[in-house]
Amino acid sequence: MQLDATQPSPDLGMPPPPDRGGIELGTVGWENTLEWVEFGQGDPVDSGKTLIRVQLFRGRDKTQPLAQGIGQGHQILAQLNTLSGMRIPPKGMLVWVAFPAEMDLTPGAGVIIAGASSTAQTPQLAKDRVVLDFGDVDVVFRGRSLSLHDKENRFLCVGASRTGNGAPGILMQDETGTGIHLHGGNVEITATDNGSPNKVKTWAHLDSGGFSVTQVDGSGKTSALTIKDGKTILLTPNKVQLTTGAVLLGAAGFKPVMLATSGSMGTFLTALSTWVGAVGGALAPAINGPTTTFATAIGVFASAESESTTFMASG
Length: 315
Description:
- This protein has helices at 265-279, 284-287, 291-305, and strands spanning 22-28, 37-38, 51-56, 75-80, 94-99, 110-116, 145-149, 155-159, 169-173, 179-183, 186-193, 196-207, 210-216, 222-228, 231-235, 242-243, 247-249, 257-259, 311-312.
- The chain is built from three helices and 19 strands.
């Protein structure tokens, strides 16, 4: 920084006292210079430090009128204060630069410790609110892990756990324990009972190989559906109801047959028996028994369920 500290004082005719350091006010950017950042390259000259061009108010020609957004004084190179994040201030921003004692002539010795800008474009600003408004720029938060929490223990976490427990990924969860976890190509969704935050009611898992969901009803019975590697498995102790405009059934290699019942269980069983007979033994491996056993089992099931189970299919 060229502060003419080595020149004799024009008033006393003797050198000024030793530089004790201090804080200077300035603006980002040099007068008549477009660029205001010198990025470090990591070589022995700059040690990888990024320097900001700042023009101080000290040293300006006081006979000239003040200019908007430019200090008009000494031109210096200052470092960024990385303890509060790495942010290159915009050109023209008013900044405070701190200098160590007897280092005011050393490029990069000064450190930008604060900056001020207009809050007119931040309508969210309020007495009871902290606002991080970086303007029209891209913002990057980087670390081993990142977390956002509120006082009700709702949170969003990205990265690895501090304790090392659990798979690194993205975790979002509300105060009841319901949430979603993305990790290693897997997606897990958990829904808990609102009255019991630690009691899981529904759990789903999705990966490149398939999908599965498990649900516990109010009576404690568990149902599960798995679609994986081309296979579909449904396990449930509860009733299965199918209500649709048309039902098409068919084994591999055979044309699907439409079962049209118009609400009649007898018509449904007749159509199903006709289809089972047409398919013949080709259906046997799928039902682990002869087709007659399959049709008989359907008939027994229909008789036991009576009107409580609905099979509706119409052409």
